[in-house]
């Protein structure tokens, strides 16, 4: 086996597990929290219905409950995690809605509270690129000096026609500027992309992947489009059925994507992350282990690995 695979613990791509183990010397688990945020795309500032695929939990389906204190959420999540894992180090992950969308003083209190819990060694914050003003960036820089921090941005696609369809509410240039601002401050950034959005072909999807790779952020999260019950996308799909990717089509695109990403970009996710009882279609996305092992198999068949087709 080529030495590059050994450097990712035998995997053919650069996983988050590998990266965190390398940095902290042990397995690190994420604790998904709900900090009681809203989103400008839901509170009327930009829109009232949010992105077309967004569920009631604001893309935080596995986060704690917002009616509980942060302390209770952290304790509950650690209890859940420790049933399956032996880890005693955690990343506090602000996942639900737009987690920089409050006054800076409130943000500061919330982030520092999360960091104060035993075992929390870092913080991950999911937000929108249009919710990173100068004051917020200054706070993030301060946090970045004190702890292991990363910011997640839900780009989903670089194509403006699709962005309009999904009602994302900001243009690609806003994302590019946010990435530049974060990079200039040495703040790690992770970009989310959805593979299989309606109206996009394989070439368009890979162009989005290439754009993210070229942006030199720290990481990427990829997943196939899945339709969650009772979202606007669900109602659209019922009235205007469009073709969803098959598992084989998804594997083919995702392996191409892995090949064009730079080898140092950390891959946080390659499968969907929806809740079983909320998923409408495609059902194959529920078998995450099956999808991941099919990706490994296809990389092996191609004798390939992350970065093999990366062109700067
Ligand atoms: S930006 Fe996130 S929280 Fe806001 S509507 Fe879109 S998916 Fe939902």
Summarize the structure.
The chain is an alpha/beta fold and 312 residues long.
Spell out the blueprint of helices and strands.
Elements: H1 3-6, H2 16-24, E1 29-33, H3 70-84, E2 90-94, H4 104-116, E3 120-127, H5 134-146, E4 148-156, H6 160-165, H7 172-184, E5 188-195, H8 202-214, E6 219-224, E7 227-228, H9 232-239, H10 247-260, E8 266-269, E9 279-281, H11 288-301
Parallel strand pairs: 1-2, 2-3, 3-4, 4-5, 5-6, 6-8
Antiparallel strand pairs: 7-9
Helix pairs in contact: 4-5, 8-10, 10-11
The structure holds iron/sulfur cluster.
Summarize the amount of helix as a percent range: 25-40%
Number of helices: 11
Largest sheet: 7 strands, parallel
Through-space gap between termini: 25 Å
Radius of gyration: 19 Å
Order of strands across the main sheet:
1-2-3-4-5-6-8
Features:
alpha/beta; TIM Barrel; single chain; 312 residues; binds iron/sulfur cluster; globular; two-stranded antiparallel sheet; seven-stranded parallel beta sheet
General description of the model:
The chain has 312 residues and is α/β, with parallel strands linked by helices. It has one domain (3-222, 259-271): TIM Barrel, CATH 3.20.20. Helices cover 39% and strands 16% of the residues. The protein has 11 helices and 9 strands. The chain has helices spanning 3-6, 16-24, 70-84, 104-116, 134-146, 160-165, 172-184, 202-214, 232-239, 247-260, 288-301; strands spanning 29-33, 90-94, 120-127, 148-156, 188-195, 219-224, 227-228, 266-269, 279-281. The chain has a 7-stranded parallel β-sheet. β1 (29-33), α3 (70-84) and β2 (90-94) form a beta-alpha-beta unit. The longest helix has 15 residues, at 70-84. The relative contact order is 0.13.
């Amino acid at each position: 086996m080529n030495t590059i695979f050994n450097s990712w613990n035998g995997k053919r791509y650069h996983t988050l597990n590998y990266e965190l183990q390398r940095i902290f010397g042990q397995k690190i688990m994420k604790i998904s929290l709900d900090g009681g945020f809203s989103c400008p795309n839901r509170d009327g500032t930009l829109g009232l219905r949010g992105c077309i695929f967004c569920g009631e939990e604001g893309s935080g389906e596995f986060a704690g409950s917002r009616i509980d204190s942060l302390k209770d959420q952290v304790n509950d999540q650690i209890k859940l995690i420790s049933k399956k894992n032996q880890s005693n180090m955690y990343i506090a992950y602000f996942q639900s809605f737009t987690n920089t969308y409050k006054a800076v003083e409130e943000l500061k209190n919330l982030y520092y509270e999360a960091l104060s819990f035993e075992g929390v060694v870092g913080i991950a914050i999911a937000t929108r690129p249009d919710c990173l003003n100068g004051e917020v960036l200054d706070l993030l820089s301060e946090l970045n000096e004190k702890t292991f921090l990363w910011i997640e941005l839900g780009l989903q696609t670089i194509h403006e026609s699709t962005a309009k369809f999904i009602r994302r509410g900001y243009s690609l240039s806003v994302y590019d500027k946010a990435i530049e601002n974060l990079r200039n401050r040495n703040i790690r950034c992770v970009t989310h992309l959805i593979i299989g959005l309606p109206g996009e072909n394989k070439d368009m999807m890979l162009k989005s992947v290439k754009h993210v790779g070229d942006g030199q952020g720290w990481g990427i999260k990829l997943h196939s489009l899945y339709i969650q019950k009772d979202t606007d996308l669900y109602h659209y799909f019922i009235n205007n059925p469009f073709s969803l990717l098959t598992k084989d089509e998804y594997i083919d695109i995702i392996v191409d994507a892995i090949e064009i990403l730079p080898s140092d970009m950390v891959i946080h996710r390659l499968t969907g992350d929806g809740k079983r009882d909320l998923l409408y279609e495609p059902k194959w996305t529920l078998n995450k282990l099956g999808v991941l092992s099919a990706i490994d198999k296809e990389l092996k068949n191609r004798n390939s690995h992350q970065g093999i087709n990366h062109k700067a």
